[in-house]
Fold Glucose-6-phosphate 1-dehydrogenase.
Amino acid sequence: MRMPDVTEPFELVLFGAKGDLAHRKLIPALYNLHVDGRLSEQGNIWAITRPNTEQSAYIEQVKDWVRKLGAEFDEKTWKAFSQRIKLVGVDLYKAAGYSKLAKKLNASGNPVVYYCAVHSRLYPVICEQLFAHNLITEHSAIVLEKPIGNDYESGMVINRRVAEFFEESQIYRIDHYLGKETVQNLLALRFANSIFEHQWNQRYIDHIQITISETVGVEQRAGFYEGTGALRDMLQNHLLQLLCMTAMEPPASMEAESVREEKVKVLKALKPIVGADISECVVRGQYGEGISEGEMVPKYKDEPGVDTHSTTETFVALKAQIDNWRWSGVPFYLRTGKRLAKRACEIVVQFKEVPHSIFEMQHKKTMANKLVFHLQPDEGVSLQLCEKRVGNHMQVRPMVLSLNQSDQDKNRVPEAYERLLADAINRNPTLFLREDELMTAWQWVDPILNHWQTSDQRPDTYTAGSWGPAASTLLLAKDGRLWEENS
Ligand code: BG6
């Protein structure tokens, strides 16, 4: 039997325990950790829900979630897992629920991690109440889900308020993309191999594309998404974090501060996109009706809870530049959207063509080397090289070397939240964001948000099931390039 990842007893207090994130990601991840024997036996999950929720009804609901989304299900394991879950009804603004929680947590005496899977405007309220009920000690930690705030200003207000109650070392700002196996493999490939470092710069790399495409629409999350949109929901955090991991200098060690220091340098070196550059370099779209995964789906404005005049973007693509020696002149094209042709997440590092070809190459440009990190649906890495076509003629053709992570051993690749939940409980902050990272990211996207708010230009409509608006294709075509269409 392997040693659990979380060896010490713990109390995990989950605010938003009935919400979408708890349902889709957090509870299944905790269940998987439990199934794999990776959680200390003395670990409780305090599910915070609205008062009047019945423990037995909640447990039934959770059973349904893990049955559908957990790694494997059997009654015996489920029973043991369900005993970890304790429901506490709390009205987040009122003292009563917190007093109940305090009694229960004080009785255990174990270190507590508060996980805020609720809207970020509630973070200050939760902190105030925890403090008022003596629920914060030097052994507590708090995990904050993204997006923290709606822009630079509101992000700053929330951070400052939380900092009145928790030290920076106790605050875990989560971005689950950093917990994905391939993102960590990106670090391993970049910094455990010497062959890439010499090529990893503007002399050899033509451009980089980072895509997170989803086939789902807004689902039941219009209440959150209408005021958020793709720029705040995905680009300000997930895409920029992937960009940092790809572009950062080698950190001195894997210690949290070394890694965070290098990431923040990248964010600070991002060339601001302001004024006329916004229309030139940023595309926003909103899905219209269309066929997604074989089914006719409605346009965004017809989704339940969405305003029929909504200008919320469900797609964003942009061209970013990093003003430093390594990356000067190398565009980073980022895009994300809902209801796109395929669910995928990829980082494509497109190398330059050879300076002079001695071979007959029909499609010289498409034959340039390409390193692709596939984050989903399958995790792995592929490298496009050229080889001689077998036969009498000296003809060269592209070939792909693939490294599939699930082939490495036959174990299941853990979900990002499994890794990050264990890290937060173990108090390892390496894969979490420091305050200055978050604020620098907000500072960079703020001018785009302001421009959209004040302009009467609306997002371009794109057909559900496509690769987004035509302007997105044009963004690269203007530079003589094409998106890697995730084929
Ligand atoms: C979340 C966003 O952070 O990431 C969602 O709020 C999005 O809108 C989700 O669907 C995508 O995560 P994953 O891991 O399923 O790609």
About this structure: The chain has 16 helices and 16 strands.
